[in-house]
Each structure stands twice: as structure tokens, then as C-alpha cells.
Specification:
heterodimer; A: mainly alpha; two-stranded antiparallel ribbon; B: mainly alpha
């Protein structure tokens, strides 16, 4: 009898998984504040993100072979009601985001204790959960305006999280302010684009939008909407000339925040960009692929070279990684610009692999900061010998950043090169290799500082605490694991890419079928 | 002429939007930048509200009699309420952004002793120069 009841509850819960994914961290955030207890804040945050991670695993398993789950919020059917639509593409990104949050939180405990005054801890974890909610929401929702709302939830909490770095360096405040101004301009551009879309189509549901845009072939309003949305989200992605907020925000934010944001925030934005470009606008149908290939492609290549080049000449490990992030986002955008199944697969898989790589590296940065206070190369000299496990994790992460075989980074670059060759762009494949050489240089500079110099005397000579090493090595291990076992990453990415390239037609069919059923 | 008058709401939207963006870019005072950001956001609210207007349409409220029965008159044209609802959300977001921005300005004033962008850039640049002197040269700065 009891077993039956449990079974029944589990069934209904499973039906509600798409919304629980968002609601769990969303409800946990105010609860953390209401309880107001510093000792309870961290366990509650960890429990919430752990539960969200479990939800995301369930969701990913249901959709990894194609197909999708459509959840009607409050029982209102789309296109009038808000719909959460889970398919391989967003289940994969949700899995990444909630996974990173769950791994970063245990790491955050020691790091936050060190870098943020105790009176702010409760609110810090509440903000962290809100940021997680926003990122998950903007990925999972199937309603265009909902994306904006969740985007702003995540952005506003991100500004707060970045500004918390002001207790170690006051420049965190001006970095957070810059980010606020640019982020708000980006989000407002996005809303203007949505307004134009609504003017042209009278709907906000993404599947419905796709169907209706397909009918309006050469509509100027839709083209303006496309431009506004790409620029708006481009700011959030840190697409090359719109990346100015990123280096300072990453450098001056607390270590745990940087590890979380670098691995998730830009990735969620890349996903939204993909979703709008391919599912909503269907580039080959409405605009021809020229705009995407000839605007985004060259910018992506510029990002790969210029940002990598700037990263080589840094004197600070954390800032070097921030510039390397801009370069790596270039690879993801290049996958979009190549515009074939392999290219999109490379974008999706690099989104994931770069997420885990940067999480590992920024956590290593946090562990080093705990011992040395800063990450300038002359201050971290020899720390690889003092902190062998942290140093080894930096090496693994660095190799993955370069794309050495046997690491996750290799898989994504391999697929990207394949995609370039599919289009017959051998020079593009060459450019990918050359920019990887720059990565060799900037990673080598860190490794050289960590291992080939003598440690200075005025730093703490001690390995990082276990609470940091375990999450760090989970991520570093993942970098190696996903370099060999590519079933999950490549499988999900390929399903996602095929869904994105063909799924817009599928989405349109579904919405017309729904419209016919409604009549 | 018809083209200008017929699209009056869009012209106003563009003027307001550009005014706002110009203030954000051209003013050095951090509070004024926030004001510019506000003007920019409000221009988008105007755009949304004006596209909800239906020619000859009235407020989208169904008339009820004293018992609360709704009498639907098919001859009455209603404006589209959806953009208004959307913009209520966007207004809330705008207020949150403004208050957070102002809170940041307060903290910046406490730490830097100024709310002029140029002063803050100077202080940041001096700090970066000091770091480079201690730890070796670096490239980039804000670029």
C-alpha cells in the first residue's frame, strides 16, 4: 500500500520536473534569507542545487535520444500560456549549469569564509541561488519574454555577486557597475527585439514564433528584431567586440563566483543565442546564412587570436583565464558561423567542455588565492611544488584548454576542425590550430611560474583544504573523463545540434498542429 | 509627412532611446549614467505600450452589471492588454536595476570618494600601474 502511494507521488513529481528544476532553487533563495541563519545558509543552498542537479539528470535522460517534454505552466496551454520546453539542447545546458553549481558550492564554503565578511554570507548564498534560478530558467523556458525575465534575475544577482569582491579589492565595485550598465543595455536591446517580434507575429511562444516567422518572408521588422536580439544576447555572451565587461568582472569577483560564472553564465547566453538563431529565426529560411557566417565568423576568429594574444601577456593568472574565456567563446561562435551539424555539435560540446575546464581552473585559482592572497605570476611562483594536487589540476585544466588529446578540450576542437573541413575551409582549420598554439604559450607561462621557480617565503606553504580539493578534482577528473568517454557529451550535443538545425521545422509543425486542434 | 505623423510613437521611441543611450555614454557622473539608463528603458516601455493600442480601441475591461454578469458587446474594440502586462514586468526589472545601480554608486562613493567616472578610472589605472611595477608588465587593461 505504502509502496503504491510512493509510486504515485513519484509519478506526479516526475511530470512536474521541468518546473521543479526552477522552483527548487527559486524557493530556497528567500528561505535562506528568512531563516537568516549563517550555519543553515550553506546546507540549504547546497541541498537546493543538488536537488536541481538530480532533476536535470532525470530530464536529460528522458530527452537525450531526441524528443521533447512540453510543460504547461499553471495548465495554460501554449501559445497563450507559458511553456517550458525541454529538449536535448537545453537539458544538456541545464545539466551543465546545475552540475557546476553543485560542485562549486562545497568549494565556495572555504573560499567565501576567506574572502567575504561573515555578515554577508547568508545573503551571498541567497544571491547565488537566485543566479542559478535565472540561468536555469532562461535555458529551460520556451517563452521568449520569459527568457528576458530570467535573464534579468540572473544578471541582477550576478552584479551583486561580483560586487562582493570589493572586500579584497575595491575595483570589484567599478567592475560590477560597468557590468550593470552594459548588461542592462544588452538586456534592453533584447527586449526591443522581442517587441519587434511581437509586433510582427503577435505571439511570444518560441515554437509559435518559428511557425509565424516562416510565413513572413522578407519582413523588415523581423530583420530588425534579429539584429537587436543578436546584439543584446551578444553582450551577455561576451561576443568579441562586446566583451569589455568580462575581464574586470571575472578578475575582481570572489573566486567561487568567478568559477561559477565563467562556467555557466556565458554558456547559458550562448544557448539562448543558438535557440533564437536556429529555432526561432531559422536562418537559412529567412535571411540566408550570409549574415551569420560573414559577421559572426570573422569576429569569432578575431576573438580567438586577439584575446589569446592578450592572455599571453598577462601577469595575473586570473586575468589570463578571463581573456582565455573570451577566446574560447570565439570557438563556440565559430561553430555557429560554420553552420553545419558538426559546427553546431562543436559549439554545444565546447560549451560543456569549456564549462568544466574553466570551473576546474578558476577553482584552482581560488585554492591558490587562499594560500597566497593574489595570483600574480611572481606571487604564485613555485606553488605547484607547495600545493602538488592543486598544481596538477591546473596542468590538467590547462591541457584541456589547449586541446591536448586525452582531455575534454581536444574533443571539442576535433569536432570544430572537422566541421571547418566539411565546409572545405582548410584555412579555418589552420586558424584553429594556430590559435591553440597561443593557448600553449599562455598555459605554459602559468605552469612555468607554478613549477620552475622557487616558492617565495612570505606565502603559506600548505596544500589547499580537502573541501576545495575534492570539487577541484571532480572537475579536473571530468576534463579527463570526457576526453575519453564522449557518449554523453557528443551524443547529447549531436542530438541537440540536429534538433536545432532541423527542429525549427519540427517546432513549426507542432504549433500548427496545436493551432488546428484548438479550432 | 504622413510617414512621420503616422509613426509618431516610433519617432518618440527612437528619440527617447537615443537620448538615454547618449546620456549613458557621454556623462561621466555615475548617477547621471543610471538616469540615462532609466530613460533608455522607459523608451522601450513606451514602444511596448504604444504597440498594444488598437485604433478606436478602449481599455480592455469587460463591462459588468451589478450582479457581476459580463455583457460582451461584439461591437466594442479593445486594446491589446498583453504588451501592457509584459511591460509591468519590465518596469519591475527596471526599478530593480536602478536601485541596485544606485546602491553600487553608494558603495563606490564610500570606497573611491568620488562618483565621477574619470576619477575612478584614474584611481583604477594607478592601482594597475602599481601592480605592474610590483609584478611585471601586463597587457590589456580594460581592452
Amino acid at each position: 500500500m505504502a509502496a503504491e502511494e510512493v509510486h504515485h507521488v513519484a509519478l506526479t513529481l516526475r511530470d512536474h520536473l521541468p518546473v521543479l528544476q526552477i522552483l527548487i532553487p527559486f524557493c530556497a533563495a528567500p528561505l535562506v534569507v528568512l531563516f537568516g541563519s549563517r550555519t543553515l545558509a550553506w546546507p540549504m543552498a547546497f541541498a537546493a542545487s543538488g536537488l536541481a542537479f538530480l532533476c536535470s539528470i532525470y530530464l536529460l535522460m528522458q530527452v537525450i535520444d531526441g524528443g521533447f517534454i512540453s510543460y504547461h505552466l499553471g495548465g495554460w496551454a501554449p501559445p497563450l500560456g507559458i511553456e517550458y520546453r525541454v529538449d536535448a539542447a537545453n537539458a544538456f545546458v541545464v545539466f551543465l549549469i546545475s552540475g557546476i553549481a553543485t560542485v562549486v558550492l562545497p568549494f565556495a564554503r572555504a573560499s567565501v569564509n576567506e574572502e567575504i565578511p561573515q555578515k554577508n554570507h547568508t545573503l551571498f548564498y541567497a544571491c547565488f541561488l537566485l543566479c542559478l534560478t535565472g540561468l536555469l530558467g532562461m535555458v529551460i523556458t520556451g517563452d521568449a519574454f520569459n527568457v528576458f525575465v530570467f535573464l534579468e534575475i540572473s544578471s541582477l544577482s550576478t552584479y551583486v555577486l561580483v560586487s562582493q569582491g570589493s572586500f579584497t579589492d575595491k575595483r570589484a565595485l567599478s567592475a560590477a557597475y560597468d557590468y550593470l550598465i552594459l548588461g542592462t543595455i544588452g538586456a534592453t536591446f533584447f527586449v526591443i527585439g522581442l517587441g519587434f517580434l511581437y509586433m510582427a507575429t503577435g505571439t511570444l511562444n518560441m515554437a509559435d514564433l518559428a511557425g509565424r516567422i516562416a510565413l513572413l518572408e522578407d519582413n523588415r521588422t523581423v530583420q530588425a528584431a534579429f539584429a537587436f536580439i543578436v546584439v543584446g544576447i551578444g553582450l551577455k555572451v561576451a561576443m568579441f567586440p562586446l566583451h569589455l565587461w568580462l575581464p574586470n568582472a571575472y578578475v575582481y569577483a570572489p573566486s567561487a563566483v568567478t568559477a561559477f560564472l565563467a562556467a555557466t553564465a556565458t554558456k547559458a547566453a550562448v544557448y539562448v543565442l543558438l535557440r533564437f538563431m536556429f529555432s526561432v529565426f531559422q536562418p537559412d529560411f529567412v535571411f540566408g546564412s550570409l549574415a551569420i557566417t560573414w559577421i559572426i565568423g570573422p569576429l569569432a576568429v578575431l576573438a580567438m587570436f586577439i584575446a589569446s594574444f592578450v592572455a599571453v601577456f598577462q601577469n595575473n593568472f586570473k586575468r589570463m583565464l578571463a581573456y582565455s574565456s573570451i577566446a574560447q567563446i570565439g570557438y563556440m561562435l565559430l561553430g555557429i558561423a560554420i553552420l553545419n551539424v558538426n559546427g553546431l555539435t562543436a559549439t554545444m560540446v565546447h560549451l560543456f567542455n569549456h564549462g568544466i575546464t574553466k570551473a576546474a581552473l578558476f577553482m584552482a585559482v581560488g585554492a591558490i588565492i587562499l594560500r597566497t592572497g593574489t595570483t600574480f605570476y611572481d606571487r604564485i611562483a613555485g606553488m605547484g611544488r607547495v600545493m602538488p594536487l592543486t598544481g596538477a589540476a591546473v596542468v590538467v585544466g590547462g591541457l584541456s584548454l589547449i586541446g591536448v588529446p586525452g582531455t575534454a578540450g581536444f574533443i571539442s576542437k576535433w569536432v570544430l576542425v572537422q566541421a571547418a573541413l566539411d565546409n572545405g575551409w582548410w584555412w579555418m582549420a589552420l586558424a584553429i590550430m594556430l590559435s591553440s598554439l597561443l593557448a600553449v604559450v599562455y598555459v605554459w607561462r602559468v605552469v612555468e611560474a607554478l613549477y620552475l621557480q622557487a616558492p617565495s617565503d612570505d606565502v603559506v606553504h600548505k596544500e589547499a583544504p580537502l573541501s576545495m580539493l575534492v570539487p577541484l578534482w571532480i572537475m579536473a577528473g571530468a576534463c579527463i573523463w570526457f576526453g575519453f568517454d564522449t557518449d554523453i557529451t557528443l551524443g547529447a550535443a549531436r542530438t541537440a545540434a540536429e534538433g536545432l538545425l532541423a527542429g525549427s521545422a519540427g517546432m513549426a509543425e507542432i504549433s500548427t498542429a496545436a493551432a488546428q486542434a484548438a479550432h | 509627412m504622413e510617414f512621420f505623423l503616422g509613426h509618431m510613437n516610433y519617432w518618440l521611441f527612437i528619440v527617447l532611446m537615443m537620448t538615454g543611450l547618449y546620456i549613458v555614454v557621454a556623462r561621466g557622473n555615475l548617477v547621471k549614467k543610471i538616469v540615462g539608463l532609466n530613460v533608455f528603458q522607459v523608451s522601450v516601455f513606451m514602444l511596448y505600450i504604444s504597440i498594444g493600442k488598437v485604433t478606436g480601441g478602449t481599455a480592455p475591461i469587460f463591462p459588468t452589471d451589478l450582479q457581476g454578469h459580463i455583457e460582451i458587446d461584439p461591437d466594442i474594440v479593445y486594446s491589446n492588454p498583453l504588451p501592457h502586462v509584459l511591460i509591468l514586468t519590465a518596469i519591475v526589472v527596471g526599478i530593480a536595476t536602478t536601485s541596485l545601480g544606485l546602491a553600487l554608486v553608494v558603495r563606490i562613493r564610500e570606497e573611491y570618494g568620488s562618483i565621477e567616472e574619470q576619477d575612478i578610472l584614474d584611481i583604477d589605472a594607478a592601482a594597475a600601474r602599481e601592480e605592474n611595477r610590483q609584478h611585471g608588465d601586463a597587457m590589456g587593461g580594460r581592452a
